[in-house]
Amino acid sequence: MRFLHQTTTPAVLFVLAAVLVGACGAGNGSSTVPISATTGVQAISGQTVTLVTHDSFWVSEGTLREFTAESGVEVEVQRLGDTGQLVASAILTSGDPLGDVLYGVDNTFLQRALGADLFTPYESPALTGVPASLILDPGHRVTPIDFGDVCVNYWIDAFDDDLPQPSGLADLVDPAYSGMLAVQNPETSSPGMAFLLATIAEYGDGWEEYWSALRHNDVSVTTGWEDAYYGEFIAGGGDRPIVVSYASSPPAEVIYADPPVDSPPTAVLTDTCFRQVEFAGILAGTENRAASEALVDFLLSPTFQEDIPLNMFVFPALEAATLPDEFVDFVKLPDNPHVLDPAMIEANRNDWTERWTDLVLR
Amino acid sequence: MTGRLARFLCVGIPVAFLGLFFIYPVVSILGFGLTGGGLEHLVGLPGSATFRGVAWFTLWQAAVSTVLTVVVALPGAHLVARRRFAGRRLVRALATVPFVLPTVVVGGAFLAVFDRLGMSDGSFRLTHTVWAVLIAHVFFNLAVVLRTVGSYWEGLDPGPEEQARVLGASPAQTFVMVTLPRLRPAVAAAASIVFLFCLTSFGVVLLLGGPGIATIETEIWRHSVWRGDFGAATALALVQLVAVLAVVGVGNGLQRRRAVGLRTVVARAPVAGRWELAANLGLLGLVMGLPVAVLVERSFLSGGGYSLDNYRALAVRVDLLPLTALEALVNSFVFALAATAMAVTVGGLASLVVVHGQRALSRVFDLGLMLPLGASAVTIGFGMLIALDQPPLDLRSSRWLVPVAHALIGVPFVMRTLVPTLRSIDRRLREAAAVLGASPGVIRRRIDFPISARALVVGAGFAFAVSLGEFGATSFLPRQPDRLTAPLALFRLLGTPGQQLRGQAMALAVVLMVITGFSVLAIETRRGSAGADL
């Protein structure tokens, strides 16, 4: 008869307490004491900066602690969905930003972020080591941190002398490759968008014709990268030997192979690549300006840059950064990746995707 | 506790919870969107053929999914409610498992099943069709009907059925004429939850329906996240909220009829017949077992053969993740416990108000606390971002935000299992107690609470499972890397090529499934002892 003698009071009080504690802004866990400021007493030592980024962000365990050791500044990381969600959230909260530095806006969303005045300019001295082709905002409201190429990948064993692998975008509409390509919807997937932009950069106004031909050649469209790569592509048990993915996919196929392999089973068509550059920017309204600048500098330091590839599978923006062996051995970066002006992308994006939907899905 | 204080807390806690964490954020984001061009979009919607198509599709797929789910689940509900067989509790617990499975994993499993059945191509193609969406909705929501209706049915006095049979009615007649009307409150409660889930379903529509299919929910996401058009997204979110209000209103009306005759003496249920058992478990196995079996098989597949390697790897951190998969599971577990505690308390108190409060208050509570289930994750997530940003309510980086969001979705489950049971408590029993001098508080404690404990634990089980598997709303809230949840870790593992990561993701999904199964089983066992106490 245990139940009969219980009252609801403890439960009521418990939740009341829980709600109150929650409502009164419980701590956010940033109680760690800075290790030490090794480089003399600085004005920023002891401050905490918040880095707002997307869910794919991660660096090795001690990397951010090195920054704290050097500068005395603590870094708190807040992750928020994918790139699209991150930018949308930043725009919604622009009056009262979620943090001090935002990392993860790419060139396809850059103009939208700049148009919403999310960032305040900062020209990092570390930019001298970054190729000019990555510096897309001359006003330095954002700083390039990494880049990755979205390229057509193919399953090497699916092709032989009788049917060699396609050589570029033009071959994909050849009936010999009918039913072989899987792409993502540019309205719901960031590599899907990049591939559409690659075709627009290559064919200009002829892109619509190209996509009609792709459709005629039985292209398969999925919602996201996962269902294209794991559902349609041979690597995941599908039956299509060609898929839109990243230039860094082949090294991942080696690093995370099971059973281990000496070389990747996939390769990249370097003429089909669209370059995605990811930027960091100091959010307008930050109260930790100096510490934020120090963090941006650190994001371009060799320590952070060399930690990028194996954690996020993209390439460091810093030219001098040393790449891991797998990236040296198994990645063939395109000499001339497709690029488009971010302002042009933002101005036409909705129109392009609308027409693409009509052409390919309806 | 004095009556007045108790009443104040019963009303005040749910109001504070819903007001602070749902109404205030949602009103904030809708206000933001409406002033930013949303009004013009709203006016333009009825004239847009695209919108009409999307709205119509959203409604009919949700309606058909709900009917299918109820039809498939009712025989199973009868089995677990009215028959004895070995493993009855296990079946009831296992039915909850799909709830925690991330859509991307289930989607993959379904595609593999279709493929193996030869239905990924050709004239019987299921992949990227509305059929795939409907089947997946049945898979995900079967448990809602099975458990909500099952637990109510179990408590129903079998007398009227026995009388009907004695009077010569066939089993079918008895079911249609006697049982079904008496089950109505529970069926309506379960169906309205399933309908809301399907109305706002996101991952299933995107992944299984493919790029050619859109619902209002996916359109809200597309417009806000991909197009940065908050005006258009807001107009759609408003339409969705109004639709949800209408659905919940109708559902609540259907439930409100007072059912009488909950039994208080537990008679031994008859043993299940062999064929009945085989047919029922076969059906459940087909809908739920097949995709789960594919998943389990894949989780053991490693290095070209079968082994436990993927499971061992869960304890080792890969570079892509800030934590090991096991640590992410612990996070999920802790979040789920906190969310369940909040959902049970808020939902429990609100149910008391719905059943015993003043009429107007009762209706408002009944309607209001269901809304979070039908609001899109985008709306809630973005709303919380812009509303809860000022001290003392700057909760954006608080560790409480994720469990609070999960609790919002858990509360309706607690209420939908609890309210029909509370309503059915025999009025005469309460009146007798009152005549004998028991105060309302005593009646509540000594009659309502013990009888409804069974429903409360079923609701708690749901709230727990929902929180363990929640992905959508979680991904819209800011999180620190060390608070990674298991579903988010799983997505990250699947986001990079490599068989090793894929194997780990499958193993993680299976562990999530097993944890849920056992947790719900543990809750069910508690529930068994509560029932035996009566």
Structure description:
The complex is a heterodimer of chains A (362) and B (534). Chain A is of the alpha/beta class and 362 residues long. Chain A contains 13 helices and 10 strands. Chain A has helices at residues 9-23, 63-71, 83-92, 110-115, 190-203, 207-216, 225-232, 249-255, 289-299, 302-305, 308-312, 325-330, 342-360; strands at residues 48-53, 74-79, 101-106, 119-120, 143-155, 181-184, 220-222, 242-246, 266-283, 315-316. In chain A, α2 (63-71) links the parallel β1 (48-53) and β2 (74-79). The model of chain A is unreliable at 1-41 (pLDDT under 50). With 534 residues, chain B is mainly alpha-helical. In chain B, strands 1-2 form a two-stranded antiparallel sheet. Chain B has a single domain, classed as Orthogonal Bundle (MetI-like fold). At the A-B interface, α1, β2, α3, α7 and α8 of A face α1, α4, α9, α13 and α16 of B.
